[in-house]
Automatic annotation (TrEMBL):
Enzyme Commission number(s) from the entry: 1.1.1.46
Organism: Octadecabacter temperatus
Organism taxonomic ancestry: Bacteria, Pseudomonadati, Pseudomonadota, Alphaproteobacteria, Rhodobacterales
InterPro entries: Gfo/Idh/MocA-like_OxRdtase_N, Gfo/Idh/MocA_oxidrdct_glycsds, NAD(P)-bd_dom_sf
Signal peptide start and end residues: none
Transmembrane region(s): none
Gene Ontology molecular function terms on file: L-arabinose 1-dehydrogenase (NAD+) activity; nucleotide binding
The protein's name: L-arabinose 1-dehydrogenase
Length: 302
């Protein structure tokens, strides 16, 4: 299938382009970006022109930040194209519900992707927790914003979500592996005095599940989740969900990496005429923004 990539920035270059190139399912037929290009691929600065001149592009993958994404997604769906959304799928829940309705009316596929859910050990953890009851759990998602989002001021603007932008990756894993849903009980957000979105977050969910997100972690980066069940089983996901150890035993994990797995899933969804829009990670983010205590943190500069 021919696919167009929109928003040729960090994640498009780091992950989308190589994953598409390595897959037999896809050919990159066009890009849309104000500045970025991909070698050998026709580049457009304007979405409408790309759509008009490429009626054979069946799928559009949107790699822009969440705030500008809705208009692009709606235009692609209305033009009868299947759409893949980077995470988080939108700036608000309501706009993603609106996209779902547009996709349904147009009879096309909408895939709200969660790349961390495709990490290699996530399904092993889900299987280990299935049919069990979680007694306690803790999520640590601690990384360096300067390394992963260099000079991307949008992450600190309204809708950029701050540390909840990587944190939603942790929540996308948590909501996938937990055998029953949890909900937020309390949260504390620390926001730099010169920014709009948080840089640290502490959360407490039901079932004694807690989470710590930190965007100022230097040195080794921590992306871990550990759950203990009422029968004493300990499930430990580390390396962003790519490694799973159950009661001290290393589990067999999936072979396909996160983005290749997303593109394989999209090919399957289009073939089967289905959509996949699970907003449960974003519901938690919305609840955190609603319920959290606010603290002012020192100013942040790149
Ligand atoms: P980015 O490099 O800052 O932006 C991606 C591209 O979006 C830019 O090249 C820009 O293209 C376009 N863009 C930015 N603002 C725009 C606007 N207002 N209107 C139209 N186009 C705009 O961001 P990124 O790191 O790739 O992140 C994009 C998405 O991927 C986010 O939702 C993020 O959560 C997700 N993601 C990021 C990472 C990561 O490590 N960075 C990892 C996984 C997922 P032009 O200016 O050239 O048009």
């Amino acid at each position: 299938m021919k696919i167009a990539l929109v928003g040729i920035g960090k994640i498009a270059v780091d992950q989308h382009v190589p994953s598409i190139a390595a897959s037999d399912d896809w050919v990159i037929a066009a890009t849309v970006s104000r500045a970025g290009t991909v070698d050998g691929v026709p580049a457009f600065a304007d979405l409408d022109t790309m759509l008009a001149e490429n009626p054979d592009v069946e799928v559009v993958s949107l790699c822009l930040p969440p705030v500008p994404r809705f208009e692009y997604a709606a235009a692609c769906l209305r033009a009868g194209r299947h759409v893949m959304l980077e995470k988080p799928p939108g700036a608000t829940l309501a706009e993603v519900y609106a996209l779902e309705a547009i996709a349904k009316k147009a009879g096309v596929t909408l895939f709200a992707t969660w790349h961390s859910r495709m990490a290699k050990g996530v399904q092993a953890a889900k299987a280990a927790l299935a049919d069990k009851t979680v007694a306690t759990g803790h999520v640590d998602w601690k990384e360096n914003v300067r390394q992963w989002h260099p000079n991307q001021d949008w992450v600190f603007e309204p809708g950029g979500m701050g540390v909840l932008d990587p944190g939603i990756n942790a929540l996308s894993i948590m909501t996938e592996v937990l055998p029953s849903a949890v909900h937020l009980k309390s949260a504390v957000l620390q926001t730099p005095e010169n920014r709009q979105t948080p840089i640290r977050a502490e959360m407490e969910f039901t079932n004694n599940v807690t989470a710590s997100f930190d965007w100022l972690q230097e040195g080794s980066q921590t992306w871990e989740q550990k759950f203990t069940t009422t029968d004493g089983t300990i499930v430990h996901l580390s390396e962003g969900g790519n490694r799973c150890v159950v009661d001290g035993h290393e589990q067999e994990v999936n072979e396909l990496g996160e983005y290749p797995a997303l593109y394989a899933r999209m090919a399957e969804l289009v073939k089967n005429g289905q959509s996949d829009v699970d907003l449960s990670p974003m519901v938690h983010v919305s609840d955190i923004m609603t319920l959290a205590q606010r603290q002012i943190a020192p100013a942040f500069d790149w």
